[in-house]
Amino acid sequence: MAQVALNKLVKRYGAYQALHEVDMTVENGEFVVLVGPSGCGKSTLLRTIAGLEEISGGTISIGGRVVNTIRPKERDIAMVFQSYALYPHKTVRKNMSFALKLAGVAQPEIDKAVERAAAILGLEPLLDRKPKQLSGGQRQRVAMGRAIVRNPQVFLFDEPLSNLDAKLRVQMRAEIRELHQRLGATTVYVTHDQIEAMTMADKIVVMRDGHIEQIGHPLELYDRPANRFVAGFIGSPAMNFIEGQVDASGTDRFIASDGTAIPVSARLGILKRSPAVLAIRPEDLSIVEENTPGAFPGMVSVVETTGPETIVIANSCGTRLSVVIKERSRLKLGEKVWLSADVSKLHFFEASKDGRRLAA
Ligand SMILES: Nc1ncnc2c1ncn2[C@@H]1O[C@H](COP(=O)(O)OP(=O)(O)O)[C@@H](O)[C@H]1O
Ligand SMILES: [Mg+2]
């Protein structure tokens, strides 16, 4: 096992800069999830750690050793890709043992490693099958088995579940976490799916355009997003954003751009800096009676039922607000509703492009 540390890591493809002075540490045994929209540099970052891409600046250390010029094979890393890249004509057993064979490991030792990995992954009954005789989830397990047999210091996963259907993804998510608990290996896991990140990570790293936007425990990111981008990226349905400013005359109302007033608690830091963006998670909004103090109006535009909860989208405050409610709803499209926000759960961001969090 080993710590992975990136220090001012830069990667350029010709004139295009894919990674901008990335600083990040993955502690020994930690499960870190790198998340961000497509094209933000996640795979590039992972491939530089693996040694599959040359870097343009900074350092990469694994287990305290700078590996910038160390070849991939000597970095003691195993990588699992989205495309499982199994050998179609080899059996599961041969797929899993191939790398060890190439490395000149003795046959009895290879057999032991393959059997151990097969037991961990429940692949024992499938060892003599070929990939085309396996389901998607089983293939993904073989790809992981191939990584496990090498007993690496560090596991790297690049969107390993993207090719699976939704149900299997949820199951494999749990399996990969369990696997991590058993093996305890330092892991960097890449995904564009924020739910995968929230459910799997010890620590999440949110990336955008080759920059790290925030690093933290999943709930830290959820409860205190550092900027508007992270606020909007983490959470589903997504955070609501309302543009406006704190009432110039008072201390306890936020006036949305369409003039709607929303009660807020007095927050000195924000009062000095209008305009601002008020952000509210959908579960922190509720639908209330008209005469509720502080209630503000909206008009129902969409009602989605998931079973356990209902998502109501209402036109309000010059935008569309998502509200998640636990009850079933008889609301009709076009109906007028009254909304109320949990004053203790509001977030404020600068109205600027960076949209940094305003101290509350
Ligand atoms: N070999 C390459 N040559 C030039 N540009 C590349 C190359 N690989 C990736 N890029 C660019 O770098 C950016 C990050 O890509 P990538 O790391 O694959 O993103 P992600 O995995 O987050 O979707 C993208 O804009 C992509 O087009
Ligand atoms: Mg990628």
UniProtKB/TrEMBL annotation:
InterPro entries: AAA+_ATPase, ABC_transporter-like_ATP-bd, ABC_transporter-like_CS, ABC_transpr_MalK-like, ABC_transpr_MalK/UgpC-like, Mo/tungstate-bd_C_term_dom, NA-bd_OB-fold, P-loop_NTPase. GO terms for biological process: carbohydrate transport. Pfam families: ABC_tran, TOBE_2. This is Multiple sugar transport system ATP-binding protein. Signal peptide: none annotated. The keyword Cell membrane applies. PROSITE patterns: ABC_TRANSPORTER_1, ABC_TRANSPORTER_2. Keywords: ATP-binding, Cell inner membrane, Cell membrane, Membrane, Nucleotide-binding, Sugar transport, Transport. GO terms for molecular function: ABC-type transporter activity; ATP binding; ATP hydrolysis activity. Belongs to the ABC transporter superfamily. Residues 4-234 form the ABC transporter domain. The keyword Nucleotide-binding applies. It comes from the Bacteria.
